[in-house]
Write a structure and sequence with these properties.
The protein is mostly helical. The strands form two sheets. A two-stranded antiparallel ribbon has the order 1-2. It has a two-stranded antiparallel sheet with strand order 3-4.
């Protein structure tokens, strides 16, 4: 099966294209991939008819795509689980030559290629998963460093090679799960690259993204400058996961201890992520509180400024009314000097213009005050929401700590049980040795009795012969 080259993109549902797809995806559609514990089981489905059928069953493209998604999800589960277990057993940094790690990247490549739309180019149709991976830097700013590093690698010439390099750098950064979750949550952007029933558009993609969290406990180190990622053939090696009938199962105690250790590692990694999230939210809350204090001070200054402008406006009104009365008296008094009247009119005009300017500034200050009050309300609402989220995350952190304590207690209990079993086995071995020695003594006594019986029998025969 390792020689089969999988193609996971389905064409349009016509008779000729369905026939071609059935031949190309035989490794996914001809068999149903399921999991038996930690092993892979392949069950052959009914043969796919290559001629038109009035009532199609397994030729239905939706059925084939659903079967492919389930198979790829099961393969991803086995690949991730096997990689974590082998890495924990080795206890060292993994490199690109490690076979389970190579198979993990092959499985991830097929998951990203599933349901990918074909883009028409000058040389024909091109299918590459590098396009969706480029979107990650827009969703998560931390991914911009990886994308820039991939583009700067001199040996990469094809989009497929750049996509493979991106996966390796994301695994080294221990952010692969975070990037995949951010990408899957934006199905409006993914619809440009994938068919509606592709793995990245369905629930299976979210499940695989959740499983990738466990890979954060692995330390990987790759040197991609001399590695040829463009011409590698992505073939899934099923022989690494097929169940061997002659293999013996480990004891239940070892399996339970391994499961508890895996859960403990997962909980510790999740605890670290939640702690980082809580710290980020706390920093945001502190920043919002500082901004809230600053806005409060600015609002107080603006209020004082508005009060001052209102007082100046009242004073200007009083002065203008006094000037108007003076001008009226001046017009009635024809004997007054014409030059004084002109100066009074000029002063009245200046005071009127000053009043208009003060009124405009007052209106602007009132508008700024209203905007500040609205911004204050929005900030207070945001602070309340952040505080509620912080309380919920702290509760989750306490629950995870309690679960970690319980798992540690279970692990200690399992260790004590294993020690008691080993002591009991040693006692049984001692008793077995004692019984074997007793049996040997009894056999020796039986042989001596047989010899004595033979001697007595021969003596009796001699006596009888003498008597006769």
């Amino acid at each position: 099966m390792s020689a089969l080259t999988p193609q996971s993109d389905m064409p349009t549902p016509t008779t000729d294209k369905i026939t071609q797809a059935a031949m190309e995806t035989i490794y996914l559609c001809k068999f149903r991939v399921s999991m038996d514990g930690e092993w892979l089981c392949l069950r052959e489905l009914d043969d796919i008819s290559l001629t038109p059928d009035p009532e199609p069953t397994h030729e239905d493209p939706n059925y084939l795509m659903a079967n492919e998604r389930m198979n790829l999800m099961n393969m991803a589960k086995l690949s991730i689980k096997g990689l974590i277990e082998s890495a924990l057993n080795l206890g060292r940094t993994l490199d690109s030559d490690y076979a389970p790690l190579q198979q993990f990247f092959v499985v991830m490549e097929h998951c990203l290629k599933h349901g990918l739309k074909a883009k028409k180019t000058f040389l024909g149709q091109n299918k590459s998963f590098w396009g969706p991976l480029e979107l990650v830097e827009k969703l998560v700013p931390e991914a911009a460093e990886i994308t820039a590093s991939v583009k700067d690698l001199p040996g990469l010439k094809t989009p497929v090679g750049r996509g493979r390099a991106w996966l390796r750098l994301a695994l080294m950064q221990k952010k692969l799960s975070e990037y995949m979750k951010a990408l899957i949550n934006r199905k409006d952007l993914l619809s440009e690259f994938y068919e509606p029933n592709a793995l990245m558009m369905e629930e299976e993609g979210a499940i695989i993204a959740g499983l990738l969290v466990g890979l954060n406990v692995i330390d990987a180190n790759f040197c991609m400058k001399g590695e040829d990622l463009d011409s590698q053939v992505g073939v899934i090696d099923f022989s690494m996961y097929l169940k061997d009938g002659n293999s013996t199962k480990g004891s239940e105690g070892d399996g339970q201890i391994t499961a508890i250790l895996d859960q403990k590692n997962y909980v510790e990694e999740l605890n670290r992520h939640l702690s980082a999230t809580v710290n980020n939210l706390q920093a945001k809350v502190d920043a919002l509180e500082k901004s809230n204090t600053k806005l409060t001070e600015e609002l107080a200054v603006a209020n004082n400024r508005i009060i001052t402008l209102q007082e100046e406006m009242e004073r200007v009104k009083e002065e203008s009314s006094y000037i108007l009365e003076s001008s009226r008296k001046a017009t009635k008094d024809r004997s007054a000097d014409g030059q004084a009247l002109t100066e009074a009119r000029k002063q009245l005009k200046e005071e009127t213009q000053l009043r208009l300017d003060v009124e405009k500034e007052l209106e602007a200050q009132i508008g700024m005050r209203q905007e500040m009050e609205l911004a204050m309300k929005m900030l207070e609402k945001d602070v309340c929401e952040k505080q509620d989220a912080l309380v919920a995350l702290r509760q989750q952190l306490d629950d995870l700590r309690a679960l970690k304590h319980e798992l540690s207690f279970k692990l200690q209990s399992s260790d004590m049980g294993a020690k008691q079993k080993s002591e009991l086995n040693s006692r049984l071995e001692e008793k077995t040795n004692q019984m074997a020695a007793t049996i040997k003594q009894l056999e020796q006594s039986e042989k001596d009795l047989v010899k004595q019986a033979k001697t007595l029998n021969s003596a009796a025969n001699k006596l009888i012969q003498k008597h006769h």
